[in-house]
Amino acid sequence: LPPAPPEPWEREARAAALNGAPAAVEVRDLHKRYGEHVVLNGLDMTVTTGEVVALLGPSGSGKSTLLRGINHLEDVESGAVLIGGRRIGYTDDGRPLSPTKVAGARAQAGVGMVFQHFNLFSHLTARENVAGPLRWVHGMPAARAESRADELLEQVGLAHRADALPRHLSGGQQQRVAIARALAPNPRVLLLDEPTSALDPELIHEVLEVIRGLAREDGLTMLIATHQLRFAQEVADRVVFMSDGSVTEEGPAEEILTRPKHPATARFLRIMG
Ligand code: ADP
Ligand code: MG
C-alpha cells in the first residue's frame, strides 16, 4: 500500500500525545477479513491511560484478532491503531516499518501481551523466559535482565520455580511466568487474551489474583479479553462488548452486565450466566 498521509484524527491524536494526554489505545475503523470472512468490521475503540477494560463477546467475535491487531501481530486491511498517539509498525510519516524493526517499535510503544496458551519458550527456564526478551529486544545486559526476571517472578509468586522449564510447571504457573515476561519491560499497555481459558478450573484463581493486583496499579492500562464475568465486573472500569467484528455495547461493567441494551449482549450473558 502507498503511504497514506496522516488523517486529521491522526494529527489530533499526535497533538494530544505531545500535550501529554494521549489515549493509551485508539482503534479507528479497523477492518480485517480472512478470505471472505469479515472478522473486524469497522471497529472503533478508545482506552484511556490507566483504564482497565474487559473485552467480552462470543467465541469468534474477533477478540483475539483485535488484540493481535492492536499489538501489530496481525496485518489489518484498513483503519489504524494508535498506541499513545503513534502507530506501531509505521514511521511518523506513514511508511510501513520493515518487519525486523517492528519488535523494537512494539517494545518502544510499551505494549505487552499475554496469550491464552501462554506461548512460553519451551526450552528455556522460567527465568530465561522473562530475561531473554529483555536481552534480545531491549538490549539489556544479561546480569541485569536476570535480576529483573527474578524480581518479576517474585511478584507473581514464582521465585522458587525460576529454574524450572515450562513443562515442569502447572498451567497456572506457566501463565504467571508469561505475565512476568510481559511485565518485565515495564509496559504502559498490557493486552491479555483470555488468560485463564486454557486452565483447569482449580488453577484459574491464582492467575486472576495476579491480574487483580496489576489492575490496582496506577497508570498501567489493561485490555483483557475474558469470559470470567464476575472477574470482569470486579476489576474492569469499563466493559466493551463485541459481536460480529464491531463494538455493540460498552459502559461501566455494572451497567452492561446487569442491564444490557443490545440483544447480542443479552443473549451472551444469558448463555454465560
Ligand atoms: P475470538 O477471539 O473472539 O474467539 P477470533 O479473533 O479468534 O475470535 O476469530 C474471529 C474469527 O476469525 C473466527 O471466525 C475465526 O475462525 C476466524 N479466524 C481467526 N484467525 C484466523 C486465521 N488465521 N485464518 C482464518 N480464519 C481465522
Ligand atoms: Mg480468542
UniProtKB/TrEMBL annotation:
GO molecular function list: ATP binding; ATP hydrolysis activity; transmembrane transporter activity
Membrane topology: Multi-pass membrane protein; Peripheral membrane protein
Keyword Endoplasmic reticulum found: no
Residue stretches making up the ABC transporter domain: 25-269
Main localisation: membrane
UniProt keyword annotation of Nucleotide-binding present: yes
Domain of life assignment: Bacteria
Keywords (A to Z) from UniProt: ATP-binding, Cell membrane, Membrane, Nucleotide-binding, Transmembrane, Transmembrane helix, Transport
Subcellular location: Cell membrane
GO CC term, one of those recorded: ATP-binding cassette (ABC) transporter complex
Stated family: Belongs to the binding-protein-dependent transport system permease family.
Protein name: Amino acid ABC transporter permease/ATP-binding protein
Organism expressing this protein natively: Actinacidiphila oryziradicis
Span of the entire protein shown here: 254 to 526 of 534
